[in-house]
Amino acid sequence: MKIFRWLAFAVFLFLSACQPNVPQSITIIDGEKFLSVSSSQRTPLLILTDAGISPQPLDRVFVNGIPFALDKKITGNAPIQLQLRRAVSLTLVTPQGEQMLQTSAPTVGQVLSEAGFSLSANDRFNPPAETAITDLMTVTYFPARDLVITTGDDEINIRSAAGTVGAALAEAGIPLTGLDTSRPLENEALPADGQIYVTRVYESISTALEIIPFDEEVIESADVAFGQKEIITAGVNGIAMTRTRIRYENGEEVSREAEGKTILAEPQKQIAASGNKIVLAPVGGNIPYEYWYATEMYASWYSPCNSGTGECSYGTASGARAGFGIVAVDYSIYSYLAGMKVYIPGYGIATIGDTGGGPIIETTFGVPRTKWIDLGYDDNAIGGLSGWVTVYFLAPAPVEIPYFLK
User: Fold this and answer.
1) 0.90 surpassed by pTM
2) Domains identified in the chain and CATH numbers
3) Are 206 and 247 in contact (CB under 8 A)?
4) What pLDDT, in 10s, does the model give residues 361-380?
């Protein structure tokens, strides 16, 4: 401080010798102090020194509102307004940290420029760059950074000092809307590598109609012929609407999710009558036999020496001699059908009088054992009828209908 005062004094003596001795009216503004003096000095430093004011190294002066060097000569005879702007303390916050400054710069922007920052239109200031500096002010400065925004196959290069990813995207004119997402997330700070990835997301709902089959309730009726079924109340299928949510990211489908089902029309149950009334009917053609039931059965054949035992066997479950006219059924239903007469087109009349291996047929051909019949032949007259045939159960009908025929 003493060195500065001695230097000022030396300059004062030097300049005094060079100044014309013509007093001039000068207004001095020092903070909130206003002084009107008459001085023949023409440099701000000497004028201030004459007025008893000692500028500090970081202070600056303005002559008639224009920045002016302390030791520069003021020319002209116009009235002079000399403003001394004192240096104040200021806290500057940047991405690099916080620092204390002494400055007499008039605005935030000028402080930053004098501090060595290259300002750009995309920088962010708080307070704004044109704000006047006051003592103990805190200035926050975020310089703009280069960012690359990638959306699908498109890239956009921008500069931004936004505080968050979402704010930077909004500045670039590509804000997130609806289900859109970004990486990093929109409420996060700008990434260190400057890379922002945007995923455009939208969803659609696909609807489809689905048939709901109706259930059937069957009741027994003594008025309907056995083996027949009559519809009492016709069933009606229901209708359901299913919804599927389809998600697209950057125009590509990425997922489908079922969202449930809405019943538009409930199915209506069908009521049917199943007959248990025995009604004899002619087989037809030249066969003068009446039958009480007809059904489709899967036929195979055997003979005494072709029974699969490796030897000739003439015995049967009924005691009758094996051969033509004796047919076999699975052992599990034989007791219900033993002795019944049947007529099989292409074979003729036969008596159910033997048992066989229904499970083998069931496993090999997938035919229920209750739907299998084994046709007996004589060894010297094998007809070999096989496959699905119609089996007519001839009169008389049994007192009780076997459960597996109902």
Assistant:
1) no
2) 2-85 (3.10.20.30), 88-142 (3.10.20.30), 145-199 (3.10.20), 208-275 (2.20.230.10), 278-405 (2.40.40)
3) no
4) 888 888 999 999 999 999 98
